[in-house]
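--- STAGE predict ---
source: upstream dedup step, 1 unique chain passed
mode: sequence only
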Amino acid sequence: LWRFGYSARLLKTNHFRTAASNTSFPAVWMVLAQYSGRIPGLSVVVKKKSFSTMPETVEDKANLELYSPHPEVRGMTLLNREAFKRTVVVPVLKVKKEIVNSLLKSLKHMVLQRPGLKRVVEDPEDEDSRLVILDPHKIPEFSLGESEQEVLKQLNVCPEVSKYNLELTYENFKSEEILRAVLPEGQEVTSGFSRVGHIAHLNLRDHQLPYRHLIGQVIIDKNPGVTCVVNKTNIIDSTYRNFQMEVLAGESKLVTKVKENNIAYELDFSKVYWNPRLSTEHGRIVELLKPGDVLFDVFAGIGPFAIPAAKKKCHVFANDLNPESYNWLLHNCRLNKVDNKIKAFNMDGRDFLLGPVREELSKELPLLQEEQKTSFHIVMNLPALAIEFLGVFRHLLVGEPCSAAGLPTVHCYGFSKHDNPTKDIQERAEASLGTSLAGRCSTYLVRNVAPNKEMLCISFQIPADVLYKRPCP
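--- STAGE serialize ---
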């Protein structure tokens, strides 16, 4: 039975099939909806007898079908927003406009909850009424349950559920839904990215590269504030910790501003290293420091350890080999008004340890008194190589050891693909130091970098017999 307008006549079908069937109820009414979209005002509703026998995956599939763009966008490489338009049939209630708000509160669990879609639309047949759009997955038979009908009775609203042709456009779809519809079926969809100021940073897989410019534009469209999308085209260079990148969409402006742990930084993302996923780790290390402590940051970058430490009234020595990082470090020190509290260096990490670090420790450690609470911390955040630098601490100082409390604490970062990454990083650190750290170190899992690849931080006080070379008698 076919009806025009908003009346709700139902076309009955046979018993609903089991999960093994290729046809689901939502799929049926979606097919019919395609025809209703071609004939203005034409609406079709299908009723089935036993929806409750279906597994939970049916509703998931229904959501995919309702909120999927037009199938003709599959394989698109140049974004055409108009191609994403489609019309779907949804249930509505006709309500007097003065009680719309009361109805929305009473039936909020049944009303369509979809970002970017209006829940209430004008009734083209009655200017004093509105149409409240209901969730088609909660009203699969286009009829309300007894409790909902009782609510409508109290509000003096007709319980008849009508049909409405809802037009979905590009703006109504989420980025994941758009990319899932465009990329080849069954292939991984990338919608996640690192946000660095106005820049979105992607690591696309090979199968996604033909769609990279479309992916970039979708991310700009769906993420307010993002005006540039880049894709990493090679691994991080181990010398300067930066990488080659391609601008996929938006402006080619790679100088940006970020805020981390309430501190502002500026940087050129194409020339220095910055990872927003390390914010928590930066804060964790700074939390260990007390005013008056000394921090040596061997691979300082633009200052995410050094600057907050200086703001905490620590004495900071910060170094980076990359001239660009060094210049942005100086810039950010001035930006945060700590340029007079940080001594900055542009050196190789080993030279920094053998030079300024050795000089400062040689001068300050002998002066430490038992009651003094000053601590010395050495941060080595170059996870690809830092463990190899630990050998520099062997006999770095000459003379009688300072008190055990005064021995510097090292926070060294590393990657591990080992089945037991904690054991792996400790053994590698021990090999570089030439001593056991059993019972003298702690290991912290920073983050999962990739499948079977972890980033860890091992912290320990440098043993006196490693740090000091005793003078000959």
